[in-house]
Fold each of these.
Amino acid sequence: MVYIFQQSLNALQLGSIYALIALGYTMVYGILTMINFAHGDLFMVGAFFCFLIAVYLHLSFVPTLLLSMLGVAFLGIVIERLAYKPLRNAPRVSAIITALGVGLFLENFTLALSPYPKHIPQLLENITWTIGSFSISSLQILIIVLSLVLMLILDFIVQKTKAGMAMRAISWDKTIVPLMGVSVNKIISLTFAIGTGLGGAAGVMYGLAYPVIDPYMGIMVGWKAFICAVVGGIGNIRGAMIGGFILGGVEILVAAFLPSTYRDVVAFTLLLVLLIVRPYGILGKPQPQKV
Amino acid sequence: MSKLPNASHSSLIERWHMLTGSRLFWAIVMIAGLAFCMAASTYEFLDLYLQLILIYVGINIILTVSLNLINGYMGEFSVGHAGFMAVGAYVASLLTVHVFPPGAQNLLFPLAILAGGIGAALVGFLVAIPSFKTRGDYLAIVTLAFCMIVKSVLENIDAVGGPRGLLGMEKLTTLPWVFFWTALSVWVIRNLVYSNFGRGVLSIREDEIASDLMSVNTRQVKIIAFVVSSFFAGIAGGLFAHALQFINPRMFDILKSTDILIMVYLGGIASIAGSIIGAVIYTILLEVLRPLGVWRMVLMPLMLVLLMIYRPRGIMGLKEIRLFMPLRDLVTEKLWRQKKKEAPDASA
Amino acid sequence: MPLLEIQKLTHRFAGLCAVSDFNFAIEPQELVGIIGPNGAGKTTVFNLITGVYRASEGSIKLDDQELVGLTPHAITKRGIARTFQNIRLFKELSVLDNVRIAHYGQIAYTPTEALLHIGRFRAEEKRITNQALDLLSIFKLDEMASEKAKNLPYGLQRRLEIARALATKPRLLLLDEPAAGMNPNEIIQLMEFIGWIRKTFSVTIILIEHQMRLVMGICERLVVLDFGATIAQGLCSEIQNNPKVLEAYLGVEVAQ
């Protein structure tokens, strides 16, 4: 019983991180119908920014987190302007391949600059409380709470602010919105900034939880988060959160009861089954085909 | 073979098309090529390093042309091609290492490759089934999950070496074999594209519902496309395994699929010539840039991004060179117009 | 015996009843029109007949054989073809290929023969290409056989769509708003064109249309739908003055 509780906590932690990354995918997809395959690598860049800031600027946790998020957000805007904007009217696959290219560039650029894995110094005092055989660490609580806070802020922005309303409008009809006096480019940049910023935050948290980072860490995580976004119904923000927690839960549960090498197989098979049963994701709606 | 009625009017170009449309011509060219490759490999008058490059070019051509069938011609976004390659590699390797008697390996090599292709085709059939109901990004996920599942399953089966992989393959992949299989793949896939099944594939990309309503059995077409595509990926896998002489699951993960995707889109979707160009350029460029070390893989994606920005459809996007188009079509049309001119009142 | 017989056809989507208790029969060689305000369910009926949707209730029989539950391509092979409200040609393919694809159901070679270009392949391909070109020539489209469908002017695209449908050798042809976007002159030409198709190909035709001149000009009988239900059936002259029909199109006050 306690074991399940313990694992649930681990699942929440991992799920939060996946959810934050999945949100970035889904936000960009919702607005541009584009899958930003470089997103996982931006998550990795977030972790590396955290490393650089912690090691060379010796800042404490909160400034490190904020600076990393800002750094990644800025990088996201730059990438969007340079690589994705020219392809807004090109066939979708071209944009996807470009995203793959950007991702590869980020991975290998980081690798070229930092051939060996790096270790993030401990920025926070990690207190562990033990009740019987059940232990909970302050880091776990921080990750879960921080993620939830960020998600709530995002939800607020999208649902209750003018910018958020513009984002939702663009996702329905890109051509009409500029006629209403909204700068589409600004909103798209803002969307990228927020989406990638969240990914960067996830990178920082991941770095704190699992302190050894390497340039290829974003690949698997990125594709997994993409699956989460699709399972939740791509383009749907709440769906992305749900998808993230489902994958986190499944992975931890599988690792808890089966040999750890089975983790990926079972997780992916379950997600595949889920998609076959609900082909448009949990909260997704099939695009009605007008015949 | 049908001949144009008034050959005296043919220009040089027409004569060239007539020549390249003839089966005999191609048979001679292929035999000559094969003979050259056999000589090159036996007498080594081609640098060994160069031969290895050509072998990889050939393998990549097979991978690219087969993936183009699904991603280019059918308009899907399959990211699981490395999974089919893995199945082919493992099946072929297991046969040559554990099943075939040691002396007969050279002789039985084509059987091993074929078996790898068939194994991959069976798996391809399974992947075709979800494609009946899902399309687009959701099908991409299915292929992605499939690729990851194959890799994970292989990592968990100790009998095939688990995460450490399989070794002990003989260097059975030679230039002539690669030439043969590459030529075969390109020919078969091109045949498929210029048949009613190929037109069916294209119509699914254009408008699946209209296609179904115009009598196209979309399920049959999808199955054929996935099975043929995965079959050749499996062939490429088998050749790959016996060139490298060592394989492990990590070689066939999403990064490998990404490589193949890049070659397809670089060369141009829905174009056989494009796939060949894409595979050749990508493989050779990677070799040429090798002295740059790690920076090679920094420069490469940058160039890819630039290419996509300035030529989003790839080098030969949606265009095909005349060489690959069956002469028969054009001859039939020409003959029909001839007949019409002579008897304008004759109607169906 | 009626060529097509529909009984108690009902179709629901997400709580809405798109078509309710639709009954219909058409004899060979007839030309019947289905009319009604926008959203009345007319195209849904076409989608149900051709198998795009599977009917929630009811039966659709062609020559007394049940069609409900069959895949669209199986229904097309049985002899029903259609055109679409918004043209659905294969835009990137050539005019010739658009028509050749419609021959899919008639092709006699196997996948293996196609992969290796052996056996019946060459002869069949030649036959199909010639048939397609013959058909295009009847429709005066053969000059642009190699042109991409998307490059054709609108009127020719509509013509190509009809040619493509006829390539499947149907006994029943469903035309969905063929006059959309046409001016009065073009409509007169279309009327003659449809008459000519009937004669040349001996097809039975069901027509959905809003242009009353076309409808009254060539339809023998009419069925009127509104909100998924049949509100009137009969000869054109009867329908013209039917108060329920006027009400549906023009509102209660005008009907009174």
Amino acid sequence: MVIPNIVGAGLVVIGAGIGIGQIGGKAMEAIARQPEATGKIQTAMLIAAALIEGIGFAALFAVS
Amino acid sequence: MRRKFSIKKITFLLFLVSFVSVAQHGENADAENAPKVEKDLKTSIKEYINHHILDSYDFGLFSYTNNHHEKVHIGSPLPVILWDNGLKVFMSSKFHYGETLAEVDGSYYKLYHNKIYKTDAEGTISYDAEHHPANVMPLDFSITKNVVMIFVVFLIMFFMFKRMAKGYQKNNGMPKGMGRLLEPIVIYIRDDIAKPNIGEKNYKRYMSYLLTIFFFVWIVNLFGLTPIGVNITNNIAVTFCLAIITFVITTLTAKKDYWKHIFWMPGVPVPMKIILAPIELLGTIIKPFSLMIRLYANITAGHIVLMSIIGMMFIFNNWLGSSLSFLLAFVLGILELLVAALQAYIFTMLSALYFGSAVEEHDDHH
């Protein structure tokens, strides 16, 4: 039985979603603990999210 | 006192406007289908999206079908420059939007699915096993729509920064005019992107490249959201070139520590060093590769989704579905604005990170 390509793409998106969701959650906790560091935490969160999204897109690109 | 419009601005605007000319082009309906057969809505939406994403050999603003079932294109053709045993230059109006063959000095060229192939007088395209065209493609240096838009963005950036630099001269350090708008952004790039990543000693060398990349990617992404239909970062060749430039700059300005960390990582036992070396070497190529893919995929995916949702508006064709699709498309459009700026920021930040790792001086291992 051959698993179609789209299933792989869906799995990749699940992985990326979980990863970015975790980052977002931890960033929210950190901001709640220390509101004056909001700027730095936001910056770091965006960078990490972009890296994970990069892998996700690379995998989508390879799948299609 | 109001600043009067400078001569430069006027000439620039005239230059832009001169490119747009109304080119009336009637396309006769064939004998077998007159009036023209109405294509299925979904197929025509798919075709429209595909056409919108790809590059094109003429600067067409839009086209519509008038009352005589003819297709009218508004826009201007662009020069096509080919190298096929000699330089051949002609205007893309010879192609008539893919209808006719272009004949130049006895060789015929056909525009098929947005690529130029060399054919014979009848325009035969021979297909190979996977149903791809197997004709010879000449080397293509044409000035397509993307090239014109890159040139326009270059002019915009040039005049913008020139104006900004001049604003600093008169007021003794405090900027006037365009400087006021751009100074926070430039200072942000210097203090939050360049200095923390590259370090105090070396950041000045890379500032010009970082500024260029940031504003270029941002302006180009913003242009992609306008209805003109120019997609520059939608093209993987463009992002490939940007990533290659980052890669070349890191490789050429790297210090000894950088190469040492790749090939012979200090501080780990010898078997690990041998295992790490190919992985690190692959890493130097994968990092710019991921830069390219990230920018390309983000922008392309955003455009396709946005246009599909706008297409859904036409498929639904009732009050509830169309208005919901419109709202969704509106919200997604605003998100795309954020993505445009964010992707520019991420590209610049990661480039600064790679530059920083190239010139970093470690004094903890030895």
